[in-house]
Write a structure and sequence with these properties.
The complex is a heterodimer. Chain A is mainly β. Chain B is 0% helix and 53% strand. Chain B is built from no helices and eleven strands. In chain B, the strands form two sheets. In chain B, strands 2, 4, 5, 6, 9, 10 and 11 form a seven-stranded mixed sheet that branches. Chain B is globular and about 35 Å long. The chains are: A mainly beta, B mainly beta. Chains A and B meet through strand 5, strand 9 and strand 10 of A and strand 4, strand 5, strand 9 and strand 10 of B.
């Protein structure tokens, strides 16, 4: 069974700061998902990546398959980025194993 | 394209009752997965349905069951509710559910068991 660990658990940043959230997993995978959950519960899929790096607006996700590690970066953070960020890996097919999440608060 | 919809959005039940939650996936998506989210355990996979068949199952007791209809709509049922079943229940749909494609989540059903 894959174990997924995220760090930090909580993160407070000032508007404009560069933010990094880390995710490590224990067993080799085919893909890794980054999810965003706002207060109220709705979850949005930010990235699904299996190698290298992906960028969408101010968000960048990287993955190092050999080291079993992924990072999510937010450049020029904004209060609207405040949310819980969750990484997840497929254990088998669509059966995802989730990290505990990182609670991000960006202050203006 | 309409997103994933879940009904009802909120539900209050008492211990021992049963509950049925519904999920309508994005048109054309054949895989529907169900998840439970609690403050203590976080997000956990319940089960996945594809072409009306349960394809994957998480570590939940038999009180948790589901099904999928020919139009890919899915329902999950929890029988003999316990206080610990209070949670946010999310469903997500994807095209074929191979773990290497984006899953689109519904808004969730928040269940409170008293």
């Amino acid at each position: 069974k894959n174990e997924v660990e995220q760090s930090p658990q909580n993160l407070t940043a000032q508007e404009g700061e560069f933010i990094t959230i880390n995710c490590s997993y224990s067993v080799g995978i085919s893909a890794l998902h980054w999810l965003q959950q706002h207060p109220g519960g709705g979850i949005v899929s930010l990235f699904m990546l299996s190698s290298g790096k992906k960028k969408h607006g101010r968000l960048i996700a990287t993955i190092n398959i050999q080291e079993k590690h992924s990072s999510l970066h937010i450049t020029a953070s904004h209060p609207r980025d405040s949310a819980v960020y969750i990484c997840a890996v497929p254990e088998y097919g669509n059966k995802l194993v989730f990290g505990a999440g990182t609670i991000l608060r960006v202050k203006s | 394209k309409a997103g994933v919809t879940q009904t009802p959005r909120y539900l209050i039940k008492t211990r021992g009752q049963q509950v049925t939650l519904s999920c309508s996936p994005i048109s054309g998506h054949r895989s529907v997965s169900w998840y439970q989210q609690t403050p203590g355990q976080g997000l956990q996979f319940l089960f996945e349905y594809f072409s009306e068949t349960q394809r994957n199952k998480g570590n939940f007791p038999g009180r948790f069951s589901g099904r999928q209809f020919s139009n890919s709509r899915s329902e999950m049922n929890v029988s003999t509710l316990e206080l610990g079943d209070s949670a946010l229940y999310l469903c997500a749909s994807s095209l074929v559910g191979d773990g290497q494609e984006t899953q689109y989540f519904g808004p969730g059903t928040r269940l409170l068991v008293l």
